[in-house]
Amino acid sequence: MPDATEAQVGDFYWNSLTIRHNLGLDYSKQNWSISDRVTYKRHTKGSFIMRKSMTLLLFSVFALMPLIGHADDYLKQIKEFELEDHRGVMHSLDEYQDNDYIVMYVHGSGCPIARLSVPTYLAIEEEYADKNLEFLMINAFIQDDIPRIAKEAEEFNIQFPILKDADQSVARSMGVERTAEVFIIDPRTREIHFRGPINDQLGYETQRNSASNHYLKDALDTILAGGRVNMNDIPDAKGCLVGFFLS
């Protein structure tokens, strides 16, 4: 018969202690032998470590629970709208029902990052001209009136509508926070399938020579192919804060 290992001997002593305890024998530790005390110490220490590990594991799980579904909650629904553009023409969500998706850029006159991002947005519109998409801009800046928006549209030769959200209700429904953020919207369901920056070229007081991540283009390619964008991989857009006022 092979020799018993230390662990097996320890388990034997522990089982013996358990049996004696259940039978009401030698209940007091004063009656325990040295082997009993060593075995007790080892097993209670192991039990403590296991309980501590389980506590940490459960704490980690519960700590992460508020984050579950956060990315999906970040995507809202745009409300039905009738908004005037920078040329004085009215537009409603209904007129885009035949488009696969609306791509909407948050505009802000005079905002440095928003201005620097406009040429890239225009280039993407041209690149996807053969797709059934409608590119728009929306302006919810209280201080921006139609003439001011029209002046910037002329400066950048923006041909598509820049919608003026005068009461900010549409921007509120979308969850707009900053300029230079882009939304991809299904005009039939009003669901937002993507929101985020165009790319990672621009930051606060920083500008790379070129972008490493093309968030908008990658999102368009994914969505047009029938896929779903993982919003956990999309950083927050950098731009000027859009202040909302009580209506």
Description:
By secondary structure, the chain is an alpha+beta fold. It has 2 domains: 6-67, no CATH class; 71-233, Glutaredoxin (3-Layer(aba) Sandwich). The protein contains 7 helices and 9 strands; from the N terminus they run H-H-H-E-E-E-H-E-H-E-H-E-E-E-E-H. Mean pLDDT is 80; it is low at 5-15, 17-29, 43-50 and 53-70.
Write the layout of secondary structure elements.
Layout (H helix, E strand, L loop, with lengths): L5 H17 L11 H31 L5 H5 L7 E4 L4 E3 L8 E7 L4 H16 L5 E7 L6 H11 L5 E3 L4 H6 L7 E4 L6 E5 L5 E2 L2 E2 L7 H10 L23
Parallel strand pairs: 3-4, 4-5
Antiparallel strand pairs: 1-2, 1-5, 3-6, 6-7, 8-9
Helix pairs in contact: 1-2
Instruction: Assign the CATH class of the largest domain.
Output: Alpha Beta
Number of domains: 2
Q: Per DSSP, what share of the residues sits in E-state strands of 2 or more residues? A: 5-15%
Query: Which regions have little confidence, pLDDT < 50, spanning 5+ residues?
Result: 5-15, 17-29, 43-50, 53-70
CATH topology of the largest domain: Glutaredoxin
Number of helices: 7
Order of helices and strands: HHHEEEHEHEHEEEEH
Provide the spatial order of strands within the biggest beta sheet.
2-1-5-4-3-6-7
User: In terms of structural class, how would the helical and strand content be classed?
Assistant: alpha+beta
Rg calculated over all Cα atoms: 31 Å
Q: Strand count, sense and closure of the main sheet?
A: 7 strands, mixed
Mean pLDDT: 80
Task: Give the overall form.
Answer: globular
Helix content: 25-40%
